[in-house]
Amino acid sequence: MADAEVSNVKTLQVKRFKPSENPKSTFFSEEKGLWAWMTTVDHKKIGLMYLGSVALFFLLGGALALLLRTELLTPAKTFIEADTYNQFFTLHGAIMVFFVLIPSIPAALGNFVLPMQLGAKDVAFPRLNLASFYIYVVGAIFTFIALANNGLDTGWTFYTPYSTGSTSSVVWVTLGVFILGFSSILTGTNFITTVHKLRAPGITWGKLPLNIWALYATSIIQVLATPVLAITVLLLTMERTLGIGIFDPALGGDPVLFQHFFWFYSHPAVYIMIVPGFGIISEVITAFSKKHIFGYWAIALSSLAIAFIGFLVWGHHMFTSGQSAVATTIFSFLTFLVGIPTGIKILNWVATLYKGSIEMKTPMLYVFMFLFLFSIGGFTGIMLGSLSADIHLHDTYYVVAHFHYVMMGGTLIALLAGLHYWWPKMTGKMYNETQGKIAAFLIFVGFNMTFLPQFIMGSQGMPRRYYNYIDQFTPFHQTSTIGSYVLGVGFLLIAYYLFRSIFSDERAPSNPWNSRGLEWQSTSPPDLHNFDHTPVVIHGPYDYHKPMEEFQLGLAASHNGHGGHGHGESVEVTTETEKA
Amino acid sequence: MANQTSSHPAHVHHHFVDSDQQFDTAKMGMWVFLVNEILFFGGLFCAYIVYRTWYPELFSEAAHELNTLWGAVNTVVLIGSSLTVAMAIRSAQKNQTKGLKINLLITIALACVFMVIKGFEYSHKFHLGIFPGEYYTFTGIEHPQANIFFSIYYMLTGVHALHVLVGIGLITWIYLRARKGEFSSEYYTPVEITGLYWHLVDLIWIFLFPLLYLIE
What we know:
Chain A contains 15 helices and three strands. Helix content of chain A is 61%, strand content 3%. Chain A is mostly helical.
């Protein structure tokens, strides 16, 4: 950029670098051993460590969910006490939101994929990246201390005044969440800077993969919203330790202010969870339709639009909390607005499928599942955003079903799509396709069986978070419980075949899906420095009509700054690339 | 970004193409972090706005308990330290290691002066019984919600003071590195981004001072 005023076109000597199918060294074979992993600054290893931790927390949160559903098999007590039940649903919510959904796609998959899609060797601040992983671990330790020490029974929302008076260990969890927030902020800061500053030659903003746009939008929300959560839980901690009274009406404070603060973060946090999912869907749907994405800019900019509007709708969580009627009306209107960019995305994805050569591989199955489930989640969100309907549906199972369709049917299904899509790249191994399809089927059936009945009983008045219920709801609750077991089996099957694939001999080719994405032009698993050349990009990431050779270009002169003589075959083209 | 690798000086990390890219990246990262800091304080400023709207007479009454003179002195001290940190960056850019070290030392000293004055202000209030929250025992203010003002006061100034302490730590670290001769006109990124952080800490105080001390 130093000579930008001279000319903005620069000629680069490039040659073709075909990724080796049998790499001599990968990031697994270099820097081996426990200590090397724990002190690594390699974004791929950090991403995998996040993935492992998220999987562990998902197992814990999922087990709690199954216990909750088991308790709800019968209208009265089934096998646990009411207090235990309160603690279980609180922990299920807190763990799934703060330890699974928020870090899952950005910190685990994003960490692995983002620098590779940009053709960078690492994120902008590799040491900060490792630090954010350890901050996550410390946050987790705080939460486990709370678990061992009285638990937590406030619900994951920590509403005052109950949370200031509760005898459970609120402070440990709020401090845990405070610490965890920094992990999220640092990841966001890292990603924003990486996207701006570390793109390989040729990657202009218009050639960024949509996954990068989605992660970029997510990072903006993380940086802008998370500090507000930090100050909120800090104030709550001070309220409990010093009684500062800011949320306590007896001392002149206002508990509704807590709700405002909390949702100012936690509503945008919903988009921290779902927007990276959108990114994965865009990647997978094009790879398995072998077609250019329909409406590149519409999808890219709608992510930013969602990030923006997402900051203005927090009040729809508080329609019944006594905020002014004017505010309520405005929040309701703004909530409907979010439906527009989201709808734009869905329609563009469906249009991408049109006349594509669709390959029904496991990741693609999850994409179709996503389109179906997320649409249901989105439409029921519009219903909850309308004022009169919400008065009836507020705090019922309808809300529970709605956010599970969005968070699980959306984010988690997208995560599974991404996990199956990038698994060969991350591990260098192929999983069993048939078992993958069976698991996808189980998850689809189990999910709908669990949560569809909850819409019905919610609309009939079953309140959420209740330990007991009246007999009329029994069939719905029992169907839901059985569905959750099917869901559990599906997840165990995924865990089984993914684990088995790691130890199997079935090596993944460097590009099993024939994707045009830059991350697939490395070996599987990638080299420690991602590529052994500096990639040069001349086409968009979804130009499936262009030959594969033109996606395998790298600078002819350099060897990515670390030894070797490259594996280039011959100088193929001399091309002009616009400078990023 | 299309620059090619020519030489890799020692201070450039392996994943950057050159020194310029590393400098730009570090600077941008710091700016993004500062945005996040502003949002962090934003929550407290928001609480301030809400309660000042609810209890305007309390705020003007309680503000009399704050010592405007010492607040003003602290403002001057912090603005002075912002100047010296800017001069430190200038010295680094011009390869003047001695000037860099002296300016950093003055900045640390000014930051300590700020903390000492703040400490005296706090201890005077504790002496009167103006504690945060439920430990509040002061009877000098008629308003029944007087403690709310001081809760906000302690949160805002306390969190700010914490940032000053972090700043002292950072600048000390930069000073120690400067003594080892690590910085030059070629490489002064840590000095620059620590300076950016310090300016923000200063800027927040410039808002805190009128909002808390100067309302009548």
